[in-house]
From TrEMBL:
Residues 2-264 form the OBG-type G domain. This is Redox-regulated ATPase YchF. One of its GO terms (molecular function) is ATP hydrolysis activity. The keyword DNA-binding does not apply. Pfam families: MMR_HSR1, TGS, YGR210-like_G4. PANTHER family: OBG GTPASE FAMILY, OBG-TYPE G DOMAIN-CONTAINING PROTEIN.
C-alpha cells in the first residue's frame, strides 16, 4: 500500500488532518478504515468508479458511494518537526524513522501564520508561512546527506574493489532513508559527480538533494484555510500548495456520520439533512463559507493530488470475469490497485500477488474484451482480466 507521511512543524494541523482522513466510515464501502496505532492509519484517495458502465447496476456497485470510489492508502502522522531536527533537536530521530516509510510527503503548513517557526502560537498573520515551506525539504536533505557522509569512508574503500557498482553501493547505504535503487540510479544520472574518492560536502549535498526529490516527493498543504489571511493562502497556492481546512473536514465527516449532513469526502459542498441546534447551524454555516470559496475543504484533494499528481499513480481494476466485471463471487469491481504511471498488465499481475505475476500469461481488456499486448501502458480506470498459465 502507498504510504503518505503527514509532516510539518508542531501545531500545523497534522493530527487533525490525520484524524479526519482515517475516521472509520461504515458507509464507505467495506474498507478497513482503521487506526493501526495512534499515528498510523488507513485513509483513501477518491476517484470515479467505472461501475456505471455496467448495465443493470444503476451506478451502484457496493464498493463505491454513488460512483465515488475510495482506494485505501496508509497515512502516518509524523512527529512534529522543528528546524535542525537532523542534528537531533526535538523529536528529530523519531521523525526521521517515521519519514523513512513514506512514499510521498504531505507537508502540512499553518497558512494562517498563527504559529511561529517552532509551532508556538502567535497572533494570526504574525508569521509568514512561506518561511516554513523550505525548511522541511532542507531537513530531509540534511538527513540524507548525513547518512551519505557517515558512510563515505566505506564507500571510498569499496570503490577500489573490481566488483564495485556505485548505484548498488549507494542504494544499500540509502535503504535506511527509504530510497530505492531506481531512485539512486535516476539521481546519479541527473548530477555530474567526480569519482567517489574526490567527493566532499558539496558533492554529497548535491546528491542528497536529488535523492530527496525522487524518494520523498513533497506536496504542501496550506492548512487552516478557514482562518488564514487570503494573501498567505494565495502565495502558497501559487507555488503549488493545496489549500485545506483539516478542522472543517473533521467536523463534516463527524456530522455526516451522525446524520446531520450529507457529505462524502472530496465533495465540493454538503447538505444539512438532520435537526440541528442553533449552535451547530452557525458552525456549519461558517464551514460553508470556507468550502464554498474553494470547492471543498481541500483535505481529500490534498490526498488525491499527492497520490495521483505528485506520485503519478493510476487506478486499475482487476476482474475475474471480463464481461460482468466481477470476481468469482459476483462482486462488481472488487479490487482497485494504485499502479505507477506506465505500468503494464504484468505489473498489475504482480501487484495482485507475486504468484499471479509469476504465472502471468496474458491479459484481457475489460472494455474491448480483446487480448492486450504485454507492452500496453495501463491507464486510469482500466478494467483488466489477468489470465494465468
Ligand atoms: N482554524 C483551524 N484550526 C485548525 C485546523 N487544523 C488544525 N487546527 C488547530 O490547530 C491546533 C493544532 O492542531 P494539531 O492537529 O494538533 O497539530 P499538529 O501538532 O500538527 O498535529 C489545534 O488546536 C487544532 O484544532 C484548521 O484547518 N483550521
Ligand atoms: Mg500532532
Amino acid at each position: 500500500m502507498i504510504t503518505v507521511g503527514l509532516a510539518g512543524k508542531p501545531n500545523a494541523g497534522k493530527s487533525t488532518f490525520f484524524r479526519a482522513v482515517t475516521r472509520a466510515e461504515a458507509e464507505v464501502g467495506n474498507y478497513p478504515f482503521t487506526t493501526i496505532d495512534a499515528n498510523r492509519g488507513v485513509a483513501a484517495v477518491r476517484t470515479d468508479c467505472p461501475c456505471d458502465e455496467v448495465d443493470g447496476l444503476d451506478g451502484y456497485c457496493g464498493n463505491c458511494r454513488e460512483g465515488r470510489r475510495y482506494v485505501p492508502v496508509e497515512v502516518i502522522d509524523v512527529a512534529g518537526l522543528v528546524p535542525d531536527a537532523h542534528e537531533g533537536r526535538g523529536l528529530g530521530n523519531r521523525f526521521l524513522d517515521e519519514l523513512r516509510q513514506a512514499d510521498v510527503i504531505l507537508h502540512v503548513v499553518d497558512a494562517s501564520g498563527g504559529t511561529d517557526e517552532e509551532g508556538e502560537p502567535v497572533e494570526v498573520g504574525a508569521h509568514d508561512p512561506q518561511e516554513d515551506v523550505e525548511f522541511l525539504e532542507h531537513e530531509m536533505e540534511m538527513w540524507i546527506a548525513g547518512v551519505l557522509r557517515d558512510n563515505l569512508n566505506g564507500l571510498v574503500r569499496r570503490s577500489k574493489t573490481p566488483e564495485f557498482e556505485l548505484d548498488e553501493a549507494l542504494a544499500e547505504i540509502l535503504t535506511g532513508v527509504g530510497a530505492s535503487e531506481t531512485d539512486v540510479q535516476h539521481a546519479l544520472r541527473r548530477v555530474e559527480l567526480p569519482p567517489v574518492g574526490d567527493w566532499g560536502d558539496e558533492e554529497i549535498e548535491v546528491l542528497a538533494r536529488e535523492v530527496r526529490g525522487l524518494s520523498k516527493p513533497t506536496l504542501v498543504v496550506a492548512n487552516k484555510l478557514d482562518v488564514a489571511p487570503d494573501g498567505f493562502v494565495d502565495a502558497l497556492v501559487e507555488d503549488g500548495a493545496v489549500p485545506a481546512s483539516a478542522e472543517s473536514e473533521l467536523a463534516l465527516r463527524r456530522a455526516d456520520e451522525s446524520g446531520v449532513v450529507d457529505y462524502a469526502p472530496g465533495d465540493g459542498s454538503f447538505k444539512v439533512t438532520g435537526d440541528i441546534s442553533d449552535e451547530q447551524g452557525a458552525g456549519l454555516e461558517s464551514i460553508r463559507n470556507t468550502v464554498d470559496g474553494y470547492g471543498g475543504t481541500g483535505v481529500q484533494k490534498a490526498l488525491d493530488t499527492a497520490v495521483y499528481g505528485t506520485l503519478n499513480r493510476i487506478t486499475v481494476y482487476p476482474v475475474g470475469n471480463e464481461n460482468g466485471w466481477t470476481d468469482g463471487s459476483g462482486n462488481v469491481l472488487p479490487d482497485a490497485f494504485l499502479l505507477r504511471d506506465g505500468a503494464t498488465p504484468r505489473d498489475l499481475a504482480y501487484a495482485i500477488h507475486s504468484d499471479i505475476g509469476d504465472a502471468y500469461h496474458h491479459a484481457v481488456d475489460g472494455r474491448t474484451k480483446q487480448r492486450m499486448s504485454d507492452e500496453t501502458e495501463l491507464e486510469e480506470g482500466d478494467v483488466v482480466k489477468v489470465v494465468t498459465a
